């Protein structure tokens, strides 16, 4: 029904001036309302009454309007004030009416040029509500899922989780994708994810979307493939769209999410009006109470761009800190009419610049109920700040609530049982489905997928055995099978060698480290880097004791001037067997590496040497030798030889030669490995 009147010169009255008791009623013109109206004030100051008066004025004037109420009280109250000639124009959207759900599918019949805008708007809604768990990867996957679903007719928000978990359904959706970038993502990128990574990536999406859709009260609305209400038609035909999103009946997150999706759909429908001349576009007024619940990033674009599409906003909330910085800047940068009820000190300080010099923060903080300070848009110019008093309720009850609800159900609502049956059939779990068979099928699919994971063949570097792994490794590096891996780790730690041959290193000489031989107080080793010949190193030389220069001419020994116990003393002293340290008293390192260090502190006292010799003068000189200073430094070899017991400590030690030795120079921390 069209109402013929001078819409351009309409004035919506909402307050009267109170300066010097000059009570003059005033309002805002149609063209000035296209610059939007912003209302802020503490709870209980009269904001809702102001909005009720304004929307009832629009209803009686025949304007198209929408009221989004997150509490539900005002939405139900308005039903009793609808005049009889406008009952058929009302679309009452109440998700709490579970027996008569009205279908709302935001993915239905989206213009190809608007798909990315719809997806971006939905991302803004999801990001605001799930801010605590939102991530770039979550946004990336969810955005591509929404874009993919919009290319297939009949899809709904239920398809998001199914697309992420059902391979067959995902293949069906991918086959209909028209955007090559979106198709490339699902085929190449998402299809190339490892199973573990894919599960981790989609888990947050399945969690949050699943929570929203798990409630039957919401699922029966968004699961309908065909929307019962056409938002574009509501705007063009000047209908009354009342949205009841009571948090007490829906839950806070569901209320905010559903309200955000409806506002996004209103914005997209308004922008679709680009296909008609501007003078033919009908003004549509959108009232949003407690709009911080739905103040997503798209609000900024509505405030800056919606005017040309004749979507006019009237927003109300309690304090400025409820808004993000981006939305706040968009509000104060674009609204034409600014109305302030009593506010708190932080808001008063913030709004001081808007109302100075006429009003100071103390004035804004101490306003009585129903009293306002405002800056009014008059013929495109913002007025100076002035004070006013809002009007009392202006409409009279008509008692039309039951008639409005009945006609709205008849025209737009569906039957709950039929909708749930369709959802079950779509999900593949209708009445005729055998649950046991389906569960077995899922179990078999999981086993098959687990086998497919191990798809890379490798040959063990050690034993040559062929085995499989679920990941791709660098084949230029050693790769070991399950049996060889612990053996190799033990070998690297110096543990016991494995029994398997080194198949992977055929043709190479295997070097086996063995402990040095202990024979009559001499460590017999082979394979020093300095020579290829066999070298015998006495225990005395390893201890690094200095030799007396006077004994050099008297003592002769094996190689390098060191007597060998196996050969006996040549022209020198003989070593009695009792002086030979027993093998049990010596602890030889498992891995035969002797670390020779320069200038190591000798923390222990000098070993007392008892030498029974046929040369009494030598014995006398040794007994009269002064005790070495503990601060003396000497090159030594660390040999772990703890004292086993008190008896072992009294046994004679190996003979200490007094002949000065010139051992082979060794760099600090040089590692020498003795081979058999």
From TrEMBL:
Cite the Type IV secretion system coupling protein TraD DNA-binding domain residue spans from the record: 31-343
Query: Compositional bias of type Basic residues: which residue ranges?
Result: 618-628
What are the Polar residues biased-composition ranges?
642-654
What's a Pfam family in this record?
Answer: TrwB_AAD_bind
Output the CDD domains linked to this UniProt entry: TrwB_TraG_TraD_VirD4
In terms of Gene3D superfamilies, this protein maps to: P-loop containing nucleotide triphosphate hydrolases
The UniProt annotation puts the region (Disordered) at 492-518, 547-584, 597-676
Q: Which domain of life is it from?
A: Bacteria
Known InterPro entries for this protein?
P-loop_NTPase, T4SS_component, T4SS_TraD_DNA-bd
> SUPFAM superfamilies annotated for this entry?
P-loop containing nucleoside triphosphate hydrolases
Compositional bias annotation for Basic and acidic residues: 492-505, 597-606
Q: Could you identify this protein by its name?
A: Type IV secretion system coupling protein TraD DNA-binding domain-containing protein
